[in-house]
What does this fold into?
Amino acid sequence: MQLQAIEYVAAIQLHQLSQKFHKAGGDGNFDKAFQSVLIEAYSTSNAHCRQLLARNFITSVQTAQTKQPAIYAVLKRLSDLFVLHSLEQSLASLLEVGFVNSSQASLLRDGIRVLLDQIRPDAVTLVDAWMFPDRQLQSALARTNEGNIYQHLYDWAQQEPLNQDDSARIAQFIQPILHQGRLHAAKASKL
It folds into this structure.
């Protein structure tokens, strides 16, 4: 059902793009017609890409059900999240053509929140599986399963260039701010 909904969005957007293009090109001016539908073409290409990604994701997860059953449940939740998020991105089109109503749109968003809650316990493991370094992720929290989260955060902060030489940084950055604050306070007290 999920894949059918995403395919429907892509088909509807392609149909709407085609209609607008033919309407705009009524005078035979291809360039003018093309220019007039660029926004719709962008949206349609995104919908088509989401459809292809969703189909491949769902197919791969179904394959994992038999070949790698230990990770199937997590992958299924990720796949469901991807599809629901993709549908949410196209919610305006779905509402416009009557494919969903407002209460179904609300259920879609609720489903996303439920899936996020279900995926949260596996989030660190999922990110770690890609073996990105903490610096690339720009996160000191990526290795929280080691148990030293606060020490890791402290060490991370100490490595920042701004924290290397306290006295020079205080003189350069903090003292001018303090001086401005004192000037403002003095002016305010005279009023």
In short: The mean pLDDT is 85. The first helix runs from residue 2 to 24. DSSP finds ten helices and no strands in the chain.
